[in-house]
Write a structure and sequence with these properties.
about 260 residues, 7 helices, three-stranded mixed beta sheet, mainly alpha
């Protein structure tokens, strides 16, 4: 069992680091590979896009987190990154439908979101038991002890490492101009994050909602369904349009 030093301020510190790193990566990816794609998307979606995103993400984060935590033995308001993601998707997709916008518009957020999870989840771990994101008890040799003498699954580390693996594959895809990374990266993110987070939820002591499934299982299932349907739809459109595969070109130009 591994003893983890904890402090409640760790969550905020790692959140700030995650935001800063995410913004830095966003700028780097924009200059390296995504400038043309981002400008193309910006020309389609209009100025209300980010308002729709925020209008979905903020209530989604607090509703999902609180609906789960208020059912605990010690009820409290909270927020959730998966709730923010689902809420943002709902807000943006409604906005796109009203404006008649088709295709993925979330490519610019893929790298920053993944990196944010990679960094931010360590803040959840080091914040300890008060954070409420700890894992279920286990006797595995890498169990972590957060101050109560109980060995637990380090689910925060599991999630961080899973997203680090996705980020590495995604960056490799951008480097090689893979169509899935250049045009369908956001849908791939939803698939991977939804699938892996769905698995990690079985290792958390959250109150079940339907059978063995908690609220986040349902949200993650929705993410997987969304990612799969929209990924396949984007692929079919590319084939129908006879879109050519990416070819080498200047790093900042779309292909």
């Amino acid at each position: 069992m591994i003893q983890i030093p904890t402090a409640t301020w760790a969550h905020a510190a790692f959140d700030l680091a995650a935001w800063a790193a995410g913004i830095g990566l966003s700028v780097a990816l924009y200059r390296w590979r995504l400038k043309g794609l981002t400008e193309q998307v910006a020309g389609k979606v209009g100025g209300g896009y980010f308002a729709a995103l925020v209008a979905g993400a903020i209530p989604g984060a607090w509703l999902a987190g609180s609906l789960n935590s208020l059912r605990n033995a010690d009820p409290a308001l909270s927020h959730s990154v998966v709730g923010a993601l689902v809420g943002a998707i709902v807000g943006v997709e409604i906005y796109k439908a009203l404006r008649g916008v088709r295709g993925s518009t979330g490519g610019v957020f893929v790298g920053p979101f993944a990196l944010g999870v990679v960094i931010g989840r360590w803040g959840c771990l080091f914040a300890g038991l008060p954070d409420g994101t700890y894992g279920a008890p286990t006797t595995l040799p890498w169990a972590v002890e957060l101050g109560d003498g109980i060995g637990r699954h380090p689910v925060q580390a599991y999630e961080s490492l899973a997203m680090a693996a996705f980020l590495a594959v995604y960056l490799e895809g951008l480097a090689r101009r893979r169509p899935w990374a250049m045009r369908r990266g956001f849908y791939a993110l939803c698939l991977w994050y939804g699938l892996t987070r769905f698995g990690w939820e079985f290792l958390k002591p959250y109150p079940p909602l339907i059978g063995p499934l908690n609220l986040f299982h349902l949200l993650c299932g929705g993410l997987v369904a969304y990612g799969w349907v929209y990924y396949r739809g984007s692929l079919r459109r590319d084939r129908a349009e006879g879109r050519a595969l990416p070819v080498p070109g200047p790093d900042h130009e779309p292909v």
